[in-house]
């Protein structure tokens, strides 16, 4: 593969490719602040509208390929973009959200009340199996190679749209940028149906947009 999981690019790599990592639309558990993890929760009506509106914008990037988590909320979001572009969506369970064991289905307040020390350790950047589930590095281990494999198939200056989940997107970005896992939390979260954009440069992948809701603009200035 031309691009490694640390974000390094070999001399034979095609340059100028772009990866758009798009979070799914709103679900009822998002509204209730419940930890979804790998639970298969559907979009709300608002979530469908968000996906449709965002798809209209992302279609303007003329993506070459779409891949998505197979969970309903991501698959339904991806379907809106597929309908506009005519592209086939490749679903992969490796793009699912972090499995979080007994945390799944609990509200944020319930997690703090029952597993406060575990939650605090995770926020400090310590490797924690939240609820007895996956480590963040394990999520990156399964998701990042899928993204890289599909990005490697892009033409020069091509665009891949990855429809996934907030936690999985953050860990994937951290891995592709070569960041220390303890700092991945510093990337911040994504709002429903917002996206981040990674661009391929001379020294590997770089973060071009984060938690965006409009199409990326060219960077004007010295550091391009």
TrEMBL record:
InterPro entries documented for this protein: His_Pase_superF_clade-1, His_PPase_superfam, PG/BPGM_mutase_AS, PGM_Phosphatase
Domain of life: Bacteria
Naturally occurring in which organism (per UniProt): Streptomyces erythrogriseus
Protein name, as recorded: Histidine phosphatase family protein
One Pfam assignment: His_Phos_1
High-level lineage: Bacteria, Bacillati, Actinomycetota, Actinomycetes, Kitasatosporales
Membrane-spanning ranges: none
């Amino acid at each position: 593969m031309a691009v490694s999981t640390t974000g390094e690019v070999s001399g034979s790599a095609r340059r100028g490719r772009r990866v758009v990592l798009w979070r799914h639309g709103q679900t009822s558990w998002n509204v209730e602040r419940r930890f979804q993890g790998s639970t298969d929760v559907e979009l709300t009506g608002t979530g469908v509208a968000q996906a449709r509106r965002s798809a209209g914008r992302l279609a303007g990037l003329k993506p070459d390929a779409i891949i998505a988590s197979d969970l309903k909320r991501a698959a339904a979001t991806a379907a809106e973009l597929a309908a506009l572009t005519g592209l086939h969506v490749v679903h992969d369970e490796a793009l699912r959200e972090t499995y979080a064991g007994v945390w799944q289905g609990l509200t944020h307040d319930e997690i703090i009340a029952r597993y406060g020390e575990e939650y605090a350790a995770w926020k400090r950047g310590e490797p924690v199996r939240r609820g007895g589930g996956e480590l963040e590095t394990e999520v990156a281990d399964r998701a990042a190679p899928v993204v890289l494999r599909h990005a490697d198939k892009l033409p020069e200056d091509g665009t891949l749209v990855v429809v996934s989940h907030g936690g999985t997107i953050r860990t994937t970005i951290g891995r592709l940028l070569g960041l220390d896992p303890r700092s991945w939390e510093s990337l911040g979260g994504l709002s429903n149906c917002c996206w981040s954009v990674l661009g391929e440069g001379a020294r590997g992948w770089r973060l071009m947009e984060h938690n965006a809701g409009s199409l990326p603009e060219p960077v004007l200035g010295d550091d391009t």
